[in-house]
Amino acid sequence: MIEGILIGLTTALTFQNILMVMVGCFFGTIIGMLPGLGPMTAIALMIPITYGFDPATGLILMAGVYYGAVFGGSTSSILLNAPGVPGTVATSFDGYPMAQQGKAGKALAIAAWSSFAGGTLSAIYLLFMAPSLSKVSLSFRSPDYFALMILGLTAIAAFSSKGQFLKAMMMVVLGLMLASVGQDSLSDITRFTFNNMNLTDGISFVLVVMATFAMSEALTIILKRNDPTDAAKQVSLTELGSIRINKEERTKMYKTIPRSSVIGFLIGVLPGAGATIASFLAYGMERNVVSDEEKEKFGKGSVNGLSAPETANNAACSGSFVPMLTLGIPGSGTTAVMLGALLGFGVQPGPRLYMTNPEIFWSIIMSMYIGMVILLILNLPLIPYIARILAVPKNYLIPLILFFSVTGIYVMSFNNFDIYLMIGIAVVATFLRLYDFPMPPLILAFVLGGLMEENLRRSLLLSNGSWEFLWDRTLTACILATTILIVIWHIYKTFKKKN
Amino acid sequence: MNINTTKIISLLFFIFSAFYLYTAYQIQVFAFDENAPFNARTFPIYLGYAGLFFSGLKLILPDTNTIKVDHKNLEYKKTGILILIAIIYGATILKVGYFLTTSLFLFASYYFLGERRWILMFLLSFPFVAAFMYLLHGILDIYLRDPFLQLIGVMG
Predict the structure, then answer these.
(1) Number of helices (H) and strands (E), helices first, in chain A?
(2) Which residues of chain B lie closer than 8 angstroms to A394, CB-CB?
(3) Residue A278 to residue A292: CA distance in whole angstroms
């Protein structure tokens, strides 16, 4: 194993490869910042270019683009409340309020350090656990995945702000309903399309996330422009603040990062789970373990609330390489694109790769890690310049957010209908936000909808229509028991506070 | 029962869920799939019932955290205009082209939001869109349909 790591390091640390990773990080950050263009698009765009290089250099370029785009996605989540990818949605919960309080620089620095620490720790976990983890990931079955998704959705609803559980559950159901529009994945039967051809392929994730986050945020800002309670918030948006993280904040991060990295890595290892569930679960868990005083700060710019999802999503990114490299099963959309690129290079990931070609396995892991180091070195000094976007006055920023949102949809589909649909969803979301209906549960449910139905389908077919699959396996029963405990805990806490 | 806007939204969601459930039952499945443990309508039916359940609970249970929105302070007019401009933008982008419609959309939005610094408004619309278009189309090779630029011979 050590030999494999050393070969991986030697390959990744040549001048050409370091230059590639720098270029990749820079372009990845810019592409990732553009709402609608996430790591998946960024890597997909790079594939034709990488074929001009040898496999190691090509992969290193992609690694740089990948981490750059993830950091860029976090940047737009924090500065604009416009997460381009599902994995950075949870980052906006506390990152954006922090930016509104004039601490945008600090929020970006916390995100950068947490991402780096999450990636570093997950690389260490990978070092020691990769062989046995591939066996663990194989033991997960459809009922376990279904239960895990129920847990993720319940956790995000339960951990919404005080008194919002039912509202959050309504948003979860609405997200799942939106995800059910279009062709059924198995039978190709169209559902809820009302004979509209534009809905046959379903509603795209980018459209829903742009509508419910970026566009509805822009509309809410205009709508509340004269609201005296909101005016103070808007003024502070023009302030960047220091990027220095003080001792108290560092202490909080020291506690958050290890536990979030473990969650992120373990969730990342499960094929199909990925950075989104990891970041939401880490956020939920963090909110549950901190003190009551700190808990109150969640959703209002908490350091723990920002650090947890950022650590977890990066740890999950590394973790998601385990099923891809050891089983040949991509754990996420991004790793699916990477898998395609690896196949293009003639590298066949699968159970034999780790055993027979450890140097390929480790050069990929090492190049990912070096990408992260370079990203930190490059982006930390650039934070003040990146965050200048906040200095743009509202009269300019709002139309620019709308422009980026519409462009994101336009380049994806070249379809007027999608633009109308996005505007429609944004108007409804703006109205719902006015009455404190939380949007993150809707997004998570929308992302998980297809996977959830698929796993329920398999489970029910295997159990011949019986719901006994929910308690047949110990793992499924444990996950569901955790879900029930979360709901009971939430009801108990609400009841206790009421009294 | 105290009727507030949250309750009205819950009622609307209840009606929406009922409609969703009705539509879910109308989904045509293959004859051999009709009695299968899982078919194309199974998951939507569960969702419909879940929607009815949660919105029903929200309707019945007392509201512990009532949200009051002061409509007098909300800028409905400007928001409405912005939405209207976005709809016009969406309607014309394919026919007229990305460059002209996007630039005009940005310019009009700045104007209706109260901006009057004409040079800055111009710079942040036409040249800005041109630069952005170059990034997408020229560097990243993302196709942008633009009949207007094709007509005047700027784009191939």
Answers:
(1) 24, 2
(2) 113
(3) 23
Q: Minimal Cα–Cα distance from A207 to chain B, Å? A: 14
Q: Any chain A CB within 8 A of the CB of B54?
A: yes
User: Which residues in chain A have their CB less than 8 angstroms from residue B28's CB?
Assistant: 189
What is residue A272's predicted lDDT score, i.e. its pLDDT?
56
Using an 8 Å CB-CB cutoff, list chain B residues near A430.
Answer: 79
CA–CA separation, A237 vs A393, rounded Å? 9
Q: Where are the domains of chain B?
A: 5-60, 73-151
Q: How many CA atoms lie within 13 A of B44 on its CB side?
A: 28
Q: Which of A189, A414, A427 sits opposite B28 (nearest CB)?
A: A189
- DSSP per-residue letters across A280-297: HHHHHHHHHHS-HHHHHH
DSSP annotation of B73: G
**pTM, to two decimals:** 0.74
CB contact under 8 A, A427 and B86: no
Whole-number Å distance between alpha carbons of A414 and A24: 28
Enumerate the β-bridge partners of residue A183.
A190
Domain chopping of chain A, boundaries: 2-498
This model of the complex carries an ipTM of: 0.93
The pLDDT score that the predictor gives to residue A242 is 73
Cβ contacts (< 8 Å) between B51 and chain A: which residues? 170, 173-174, 177
